[in-house]
Amino acid sequence: MLEDGSTYYGCGFGAKKTAVGEVVFTTSMVGYPESLTDPSYAGQILIITHPLVGNYGVASRDLAIYGVPLHFESDRIWVSGFIIHELTWPSHWTSVMSLDEWLQRENVPGIFRVDTRALVKKIRERGVMMGILKVYDPREEDPNIDELYDTLKKAPRYDQIRFIDTVSPRGIKIYEPDSPELTVGILDCGVKYGIIRELLKRRCRVIRYPPHVDPSKIADECDGVIVSNGPGNPSILSDVIENVLAIAEYGLPMLGICLGHQLISLAFGARTFKLKYGHRGPNKTVKDLETGRCYITTQNHGYAVDAESAEKAGFNIWFINVDDKTVEGLKHTKKKIITTQFHPEAGPGPHDTSWIFDLFKKMMRAQ
Asked: Which residues are catalytic?
């Protein structure tokens, strides 16, 4: 059920429970294990627009590089609920369980055989809305629609919740590649494993820090810092924004990705705003304003940085979204800071923007 009162019935799978969240959609045709485990989806009920989901099941976490799983973006599912058109039975050599079994294990509700096209059309016209998803056994209960709608209306809105406090680590974790050349600190606001894998491939030692780490610790231990992706409204994270600015004052090369791009922008005085229905999927085109080249990127964000305020804050616009001309990347005019709103690690092309990490490594070597 959406906050406008529209109700959709289908077949439940996964956990029998009720979940509330912001209803969003992704245009991905594959990659549901990566999407479901992306911490940036915390607090959201995710719709996949592709009609068949579950074909290749769920892979083993033993398939890994330097101990980081290859087919997942974190250690658990983060979406509040999952909406698909048709649930399929898996057939793939890497599969160790079905999508249904996985959601049951992780206590996440899902629904299939609903008109996902109608849902997405409504969101595109109205914008993202809060929603409630209930999976139940009709032999055991008959849900009260009015009570569900009342629960939805009373629930806090997505924009008001600090999801970063849920997805961020409590302590420090270190990843060691063979023959490390540099050390990268990640200010972990909900980092995707894909970012860590790209750094390890480039022989960078990786240290994941909580977002409130003492800036001097990063300056003492690292050659550069990445402010990671993560969920939620960036403008309510005033304490993290202050810490990002304090870290930037040490002059280390800095790369912001997705939420990290927004937090760095806010730290220097720019503004952010909420998009009508966000950019989520692996087929989003951005243009490099320095070279004129276009790249296909993977994106997952509901907020964007205001271009005019970013330029006043000391940034040059680096990338823009080809469709709606929103800011997709920045370069600071004086400091060694670059940012991308898209995910350079995700590889939709599959290597279209992975060179961003090569550029960041070059910046660290040059300091």
From this structure: 258, 343, 345
- C-alpha torsion 56→57→58→59, nearest 10: -40
- Which residues of the chain have a pLDDT value below 50? none
| Domains in the chain, CATH or no CATH each | 11-160 (3.50.30.20), 164-366 (3.40.50.880)
Q: How far apart are CA 57 and CA 40, in angstroms?
A: 22
Residue 97, helix vs strand vs coil: strand
- Rounded Cα distance between 346 and 81, Å, is 23
Q: Whole-prediction pTM value? A: 0.97
Identify the CA nearest to 134 among candidates 185, 80, 177. Answer: 80
* pLDDT at residue 367, as a whole number: 80
Q: What digits encode the pLDDT tens for the residues 59-95?
A: 999 999 999 999 999 999 999 999 999 999 999 999 9
Q: Are 175 and 205 in contact, with CB atoms under 8 Å apart?
A: yes
Alpha-carbon span 173 to 99, nearest angstrom:
29
- By C-alpha distance, which of 192, 190, 186 is closest to 208? 186
